[in-house]
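Morning!

As promised:
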Amino acid sequence: MLLFRSEEHLERSGKPKGAFMTPEQTWRLAHTWYHDRDDPSWHRRSPKEAEEVFAEIGLKGDFWVMT
Amino acid sequence: MRVRIAVLERTIASGQVPTAGEIAADLDLPLEMVQETYAKLGESHVFVCEPSDPSRLRMANPFSAVPTAFRVSARGGSYYGNCVWDSLGIIALLGGEGSVETSCPDCSEPLRLHVSGGTLVESEGVVHFSVAARHWWDDIVFT
């Protein structure tokens, strides 16, 4: 997952287009995903749980389906 | 579980993802046992193993064991993140205060994200995911 200056910069780079999210969405995703990673009781999310996290921050559609 | 936590704690303290030998010494465990645990953590997609060396991790997520284009400063330490998501994840793990410095893959212009008090207070650019979620672990280094 890379940070481009704008969507136009991705097009100019010639890399295939996938999906965009804002830095704010990425921060919310990162916080939910990693804030408790050093807790001994942490467990890896199931695909369904991961999809629920994506949906909570507005990431919906086939691109965000884990299974 | 002890090994996973020890890897994260040592990485946070030193800025370097530890080898199996370093964790074996820290926890007074046989090297082989730590290597087996590294392999299991890799198989379960918690960490990512270095394919050619059972004593090394490529990623102790969210940390990268090798230099990347994502430099993270948080809680007085300096780290490499695997991607934007993981770089912000380092800041989340370390209390929600820090910055990510990278550059646009197209124009090479520096880009910076800054988090303060648990809020993203400075941001620029757009985050791009090239690989659909169901394929992330087909080749996690590329992802």
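The helical segments of chain A are 7-13, 23-34, 47-56.

Hope this helps with the figure draft.
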